[in-house]
Amino acid sequence: MRILHVSTGRTWRGGERQNLLLMEGLRSRGEEQALVAPRGSALAKRAADGGFAVYAMPILNEGDVAALGRITRLVRRHRYDVLHLHTSQAHGLGAAAARLAGRRRPATVVTRRVEHSIYRHSFLHLDRIKYAPGADRVLCVSERVREVLLGDGLPADRLVVVPDGIDLASYRGAGSTDARKRLGIPEDAWLIGTVGHLDRSKGHHHLVDALLLLSTEHRDAHLLLVGDGPARRDLDRQVGETGLGRRVTFAGFRDDVPEILRALDVFAFPSTSEGLGSSVLEAMAAGTPVVATTAGGIPEAVRDGEDGLLVPPGDAQALADALVRVRADPAATARRRVSARERAEDRYGADRMVAGTLAAYTSAREAVSRRGPPAPRPAGRRGGRASSGSP
Known about the structure:
alpha/beta; 2 domains; 7-stranded parallel β-sheet; 6-stranded parallel β-sheet; 13 strands; 42% helix
């Protein structure tokens, strides 16, 4: 099977990690694939370093006609069987390229990682066009995402739940203090940490509020924020205004996340909107106690009281109380850690994600075959023809 992945992500976030993990899994199964990504993006560099064929190009947005022409020419030249579109802008470009490809149209498969309606940021409901004729299969990272899309009116037979996968082997092993030393965090600190894009929807400001609430009775509490993003400046200001400067560490992007997770006393995930939360899965696999919110698909992964503790989104007091519960009852925490690790091993390994994706590719190709090629254009019309030149 020939697969062209298209992503417009420029930074290194959960979606980009999943994209590369999928490509690695598909390669191990002998599938032929390539990647289109923005020139200079983190994914383009990591994929190229990993030996994948990468077409790095300027991509301004989903209305970028030049990028559309390049992608269309790639599809025609290499006769891909599947276009896997990993971001919203990639979806717009890839769906159009598939339609312009001619009689041998590839199947289009779209990954949906967020829980909000497709109409939330849609101009004149044009996203309906992207998802109706422009997606043969939509991979939903959780049942919650699927429910939202069903509510938007998308056909049930095109929606497939394929949860994120993780490289389980990377998260096995005993804890270590080396990560704390590298980050300048005291070995005896009660270390609360989280990993993710610093965005308002991720709820980090609620986690800082929770730290303030528990800091008087737990003077050894320290908060580690791994990741970067647009909310960093506001979080810096909040930390300074609350006097927590010495008790909060901003670590930025890190390549040693598995080791960091094993060095934590508790992993907190305060997101207010979430498709699933791959960082939660990673913490579960590492055996790190989890406190998270009930946002989006998180409760599908973390069963409250069994694999971790769940609290309402946006409730700093409930978050602080749950963090303290983790510390106050080591026996119950140990039981939840074991259950969470087993659940991650059983349900969220990368192999399951790759197998589910391949099954969706096959069903998408069969659907395209049943519908047959698009009708030919009337004689004399040249609309929609891609510009000439190499991608």
